[in-house]
Design brief:
The relative contact order is 0.24. Helices cover about 30% and strands about 30% of the residues. A hairpin with a 5-residue loop joins strand 3 and strand 4. Helix 1 packs antiparallel against helix 2. A four-stranded mixed beta sheet has the order 1-2-7-6, covered by helices on one side. The chain has a three-stranded antiparallel beta sheet with strand order 3-4-5, covered by helices on one side. The protein contains two helices and seven strands, in the order βββββαββα. It is α+β, with helices and mostly antiparallel strands.
Length: about 110
Amino acid sequence: MIKGNRIYFGYGTIGVGSLLGQEYIQLSEIESPQMIGEKIDNKIKHNKVINISATKQEFNQLLDQLDKIVQHKNGTIEFKGYILNFTKYNKSSIDVLKEHIIDAQGICFMALAC
C-alpha cells in the first residue's frame, strides 16, 4: 500500500514496473492483494502511481541497501523522498523490486547458443 510518501512492501499490494534502460521504476498500489511475483493486469489504482527516477549510481546504492534488508529480514529505506517499508519482510518482494531496478539501469546479459 502507499500512504503519502511511505510505500509498504510484503503485502502483495504494490505493483512494480520498469522499462529497460529508462532509469526509472514505477511503483503503484494495486486494487487487492496479489500473489507476490505474479503478473498483474488492470488492477492498478491510477491515483496511486509513483515514478522514481535515479542515476545508475543511486540505483546501485539502493540495491546495496536492499541487500542489507535481506540480511536483517526487516527495515526501511529512504530513497528519493520516499520511505520504502519492508517491516513485513518478504524476500520475493525485494527480489521483484531488485529485478526492476536492474532493468531500469539497462543491465542486460543474454547468452546465446552457438
